[in-house]
Specification:
The protein is α+β, with helices and mostly antiparallel strands. The protein contains 14 helices and eleven strands. Strand 5 and strand 6 form a beta hairpin.
Amino acid sequence: MNAAISEPSAPWIGTGNWWRKTFAANDTTVIVDGPVRLKDFVVDGKLTLSLKNYLDLVVANNTDIAVQRLTLETPKNAIQRAFGVFDPVINSSFSATRAKTPSTSTLQGANILNQLDQPFQASYQQLFAPGTQVNTTINMSKSSTNSSFNQYNPALTTSWSSSFTQPLLRNRGIYINRLPITIARAQRKTQELSLESTLQTLLVNAENAYWDVISARERLKVQEQALFLADQALKRSQKEVELGATSPLEIFQPQQNYATAEINLTQVKFQLQIAEDALRRQISVDLDPDVRKLPIVLTEQSMAAADEAPLDSDALVGVALQKRPDLISLRQTLDVNDLQIQSALNLLKPNLSLGGRYSTTGRGGTAFATDPVTGGRIPIPGGITDAFGQYFDYNTFAFSLTLNLPLRDRAASANLADTVVSKKLTALRQRSLEQSVRQDVLTAVNQLESSRASVKLAQVALDFAQKRADADQKRYDLGVITIFFLLASQNDLTQAQSTLVNSTVNYRRNVLNLQQRVGNLLEVKGIVMQ
């Protein structure tokens, strides 16, 4: 898009930027930049990503995050818009009117009166921060006629006036007149905090997509191992049936077990493909044809040991009450409510203002005097400088006091009451959110501690399932048990492996959830908003 129209600043009239923005041919085409830095992480034809590198790419390329960032531009422009009341304005007008009219009286000075009027007016007005309104106006007019009775023809008249109005009660002072600017800045800060909260949610979704892929890959390994064990058991049963060592009826259980393992493996493969596609979207790999088809290697290990550090719930709640952006945003809203109350109180005051005006006028042009000898008209040359030269000969000074005093202002009182109610509502919402924050953190702590315990128990269960499967294999080799019991122990081993994978990934998710609930997710991930 053309830089002139995308730039929010307002240039002064006559500058190069003003000419480009106002009169240049503007291109309104929007070009969205493609994903960046993806090829920096391509190693041996594979997109290799650690969790940190992945999150960096999410912040740089995620379309949803880019949308949220762009929402900050509107409150930024609102600040400039609030300054607009102090922008100076020049108004000007010019017109020319020629009129021919038949005369009805000899006093009109011609049988057919031919007149040309050319008035010009220019004014300058500006509001200053103390509330002072200044207005300066200059009028010039040129009038030509064929009337023989005009003393000046053409007649040139000029006038200049300057006036001011200063509020003495309502709208008086820099603070009250800059209040909309202060409110706009506070609202932009609120929007920044809202962006931070939204960004945390988007990052949680993005990291969960990372763990979805790792979880699917670990489950794929488990199902591949289960299929291998089922295949070994089926081949052995088939051989035993061929040798007559067992009844042909015993082959159905291994066959069913193998078919079930194949189904489970196929399902996990499709789940892995879906998870990888979702991860590609998070970093906009799907937009780059050179990278979108590359295999993805995630270097983070899901089976890392769970952190054993104790969790101090009260300390985490205290951190959340200080750092949660949604809570800070509500506190910022309270400040905005205070400003709105001040604005409503200002409108309750009587509207008393002091005004002053100075004006002057002059005239010029070609004058006509009567010749004392012949009685004819003698032209005396003159021009516009004569009119300007008389500016300080004819002066007008005026001062005024204007009072607008409603005997009963119900609208202003209702507006003030609304702002007070709005602040009370914000205060109650803050208290409710503080309660929710406390509950969120305590719940997240309990979920994390529960997932820690689940990981430990899943590891113990896997160890016992592995020992039982090994023992049943030996017992089966010795002919102590049938294939049914061996397959059952192998299925239990597969289930225990899957449970450990799910418990470990769930622990990772609960760590992430606690960071979000506490409000220090961006800090922990080393992400700085710009």
